[in-house]
Amino acid sequence: MATGTDQVVGLGLVALSLIIFTYYTAWVILLPFIDSQHVIHKYFLPRAYAIAIPLAAGHLLLLFVGIFITYVMLKNQNDTKKTQ
After folding, report:
1. How far apart are CA 47 and CA 62, in angstroms?
2. In degrees rounded to 5, what are phi and psi of residue 51?
3. pLDDT tens figures, 2-61
4. DSSP assignment letter at 24
5. Whole domain around residue 54: which residue ranges?
6. Beta carbons within 10 angstroms of residue 44's beta carbon
7. Is the same domain home to 32 and 50?
8. Alpha helices in 1-84 (DSSP H)
């Protein structure tokens, strides 16, 4: 069973994800339909970043997954050599 701390951390992560999803959805889907002179545009980055930020995040995710897999494989290989 999850402890109180786990539940609070989980709730925080869900809330953060919801905020990011809402912001990104408004930025990418709704903002192009609003007049470019409207005051709401100052709260969002330029549209070029709408592609660049997720692309960079995806690359970082793949990089960290690759590093983790490489680390685990090398560690298992070293453990196998020690037992022989």
Report:
1. 24
2. -100, -40
3. 788 999 999 999 999 999 999 999 999 999 999 989 999 999 999 889 999 999 999 999
4. H
5. 46-84
6. 17
7. no
8. 4-25, 49-83
